[in-house]
Amino acid sequence: MKARCLCGVTQFEVQLRNHEVAACHCSMCRRQTAGPLMSIDVENINFIDQQHLSVFSSSEWGERGFCNMCGTFIFWRIKDHSFANINVFTLEHPPEDLNFNLEIYVDNQPSFYSFNNQTKKMTEAEVVALFNSNQ
C-alpha cells in the first residue's frame, strides 16, 4: 500500500499486518500528534523517498519517524525493526474494512476525551510487559 506525509516529499509503501487500528494515549504520542496516535501495524516500511525522513530515539527501545519538511508523524518502531506501526492516516487509500479495536496507555489518557468504540484497553504496564516479553 502506498503512503505519504502531508506535503508528499516522504513517500513509502507498506504491507499491513492486519486491518486493526489502535489508539495510543501515551504522553509522547499526544505531544507529537496533538491527540492520540491512530496507528496500524505493518510488516515492513519501504521508503520510496526518504530524503526528508528524520528518526527520533524516543526511548531505550523505541524510535519515531517523521517528515522534517511538514512534520507528519510516520512511524513508531522497535529499534531492532522487529515491530513497527504507522500513522494510519498516511495511507493514500486505506482499506474500507479498518477496525478500531485497541487503545493503549489508557492510564495516561486525559479525562477530557474518550472514544465511543468498544475496544480492548491496555495500561502502560501491560504494553511495556508485552514488548519486554517479545525481546
From TrEMBL:
InterPro entries per UniProt: CENP-V/GFA (IPR006913), Mss4-like_sf (IPR011057)
Assigned keywords, A-Z: Lyase, Metal-binding, Zinc
The CENP-V/GFA domain, residue ranges: 1-106
Pfam families noted in UniProt: GFA
Keyword Metal-binding: yes
Superkingdom, natural source: Bacteria
PANTHER family in the record: CENP-V_GFA DOMAIN-CONTAINING PROTEIN-RELATED, GFA DOMAIN-CONTAINING PROTEIN
Family: Belongs to the Gfa family.
Protein name: GFA family protein
Protein species of origin: Acinetobacter terrestris
